[in-house]
Design a protein that fits this description.
This protein is mainly α. The chain has nine helices and no strands. It is globular.
């Protein structure tokens, strides 16, 4: 597999091999992110392909470092948009439940002022996560960024589903207290 810098160089050279190399290196992880959000393999595949196109259209001028995080963010954003389009009337329990779990800690955004506050909130969450042990960080990110289910997390971390739920609940409580301490109104 090619190094990220070589894949980016292919994008800058406008070589179609860039997409192939990107898919080979990160395709499985991108598909997993999209499937976790959408719960539909066909929609997930479409979102991953749309992400490759978005990467093609934005590199250059962007020179992402790390490429993996850049691509995963694109896949996640496209998948979330597709999820909202698909579930305007119905509900996808796994992703909705994950979002509801964080709802007590974080308010929804919508106005310009709220968007500015969202950037500050992002900075606060990053600082909060940096203060957690590595396993707690991974649990939080896998649940609330990658939308992994409780059973998937239990298998990944080799602990019971109940243990995962309790740990996530404690992390959310700590986050809520941290945000209040930092002056973020819930």
């Amino acid at each position: 597999m090619l190094e990220d810098s070589k894949i980016i160089a292919l994008f800058f050279a406008r070589a179609e091999e860039a997409i192939t190399a990107l898919a080979e290196k990160y395709g499985a992880a991108c598909g997993s992110i999209a499937r976790n959000i959408l719960k539909d393999s066909q929609d997930a595949e479409e979102c991953v392909n749309d992400a490759y196109l978005a990467a093609w259209n934005t590199i250059p001028p962007q020179n992402p470092n790390p490429l993996r995080a850049y691509l995963f963010r694109i896949v996640r954003n496209i998948s979330i948009a597709k999820y909202h389009a698909n579930t305007a009337v119905k509900r996808n329990s796994n992703y909705d439940v994950a979002l509801e779990e964080l709802g007590d800690c974080i308010a929804a955004s919508g106005t310009v002022e709220q968007e500015v506050a969202a950037k500050e909130l992002s900075r606060l969450i990053d600082r909060f996560l940096a203060g957690l042990d590595e396993e707690s960080q991974m649990l939080f990110v896998r649940r609330y960024w990658y939308a992994d289910s409780i059973p998937d997390l239990a298998a990944r971390f080799q602990i019971s589903g109940n243990h995962v739920s309790v740990r996530l609940s404690r992390i959310r409580d700590k986050l809520r207290k941290y945000l209040r301490k930092e002056g973020y109104s819930l």
